[in-house]
Specification:
By secondary structure, the protein is α+β, with helices and mostly antiparallel strands. It is built from 13 helices and 19 strands.
Amino acid sequence: MENQRLILFIALAAVIIMIWQEWQLEYGPKQGPAAVTETTAKQNSQTVPATPDVVLPQQGAGVPVAAKQAELPSDSRITVTTDLIEVAIDSYGGDIRSLKLLKHPVAANEPDSPFPLLRESGDELFIAQSGLIGKDGRYPSHDTRYSVTKTLYQLPSDQNQVEVALNWKSPEGVRFSKIFTFHRDSYVIDIRYEINNASRSVRKVHQYGQFRRNHADKSMGLTALPTYAGGAIYTPEEHYEKITFSDMTDQPLKRNVKGGWVALLQHYFVGSWMPGPEDFSQFYGRRIDGDQYVTGFTSILPVEIRPGEQGQLRTRLYVGPKEHKRLIKLSEGMDLTVDFGLLTFISAPLYWLLTTIHDWVGNWGLAIIFLTLIIKLVFFPLSAASYKSMAHMRRVQPKLQAIKERYGDDKQRFNQAMMEIYKTEKINPLGGCLPILIQIPVFIALYWVLLETVEMRHAPFVLWIRDLSSPDPYFILPLIMGVSMYAQHWLNPAPLDPIQKKIMQFMPAMFTVFFLFFPAGLVLYWVVNNILSIAQQWQITRMIEAQGR
């Protein structure tokens, strides 16, 4: 029975182990890349792979290449502002060089500074590039200088969308327009190419879209969270797959797909290229230079445009928060970028319940409290069985201590006498283990729900807690949690083994230090759960001890 309480600490330790494993996956030491040969360097300079049906033209004829300059080349800058985003498009390539999320500030104490999800410089370089390719002439890629007629766009209050057009004419006389469409209350950007073939030959056109991003190995601080940052794809055959940056280094991604999407993920946010569900594409991802990576798609089947005719190519881009209600309306599987881990089948219902409660109470802290209460009510019978077993053990503790003193180091005779007491008192020493084990997956699943919920980012609770996604600035909640763990330790039967007794006394202090750096929302859950557990355990213990008198 002494081991029973260890199981609860193991449940908490399991969360720590999961954090450590994720830390190793994302931030742990990685094998260095092999020496780059001249041939490899040439291959890496080409950021868009050839599709099976396309022979790419020579460099300088519209081939997308990775710029080697310290800074990206630039020309005129077009600024677009909607109700949700502020975007900067460069006329050089038509790249989206900057995208700020107006509803998501950089920090809780900087509400007027929108979070820059896409940016064109520094260690956090992350941009979206797109273009056209073909073997029968020059096409506008992200190395093309477009002409623009306007550099400032604002979504009108009486309209639901705004369009931005960039124009380019090839030496063969083909006119291209790259048109971005931004929508009200949406992080989706529609991109279409309108092509007027004024040349004398048929044009077979492919399109591509890609993200270009820096990713350098970083040391993980105490306040950093073990969330995934890297690539992901969704295919009808394999469904959701993570493609890490180390995967792209070791074995570049090259996959032919119908429909699906290709994305780059980070904590709370995602960028995703979403070809049409009937489009055939090749998804790719590779390391191109230093710490830079490209991930994207290129269409396999060309659009044929005869002389004197016009044609269009379309794709969609999502760059924004991982809000489940938005993602589920996009391409199939996009909601899976809200990564709840292996326990998604438990986490998804918990997330739904949490957001439903929030819609009712209007405060994420209160939603966590009510969700914790509901979980405790669901598991009330199981918890009661566990606490009854502990209470009975606490009641017979003096007898166990007496026989331990009588038999000293004779463990065999002590165990025989102890089992006789269990039999006489009708106590199952393992009676409390199963209820605790059943609850462990729920605890871990809820941990990932609270960790992955972008709506909780910078969400205030009460008084000093102004951001549930950041650690408690005054460490009040972690200290309360430590006190609650010590109270639980006092309610439990004291271990007979002096070494185990010291370990149990040390556990609350150890977990208090660890939780100092947890987001306040997670600590709030553990505090409420502990307080409810103490109340239930105290009542059951009092009843059992009263019966024994």
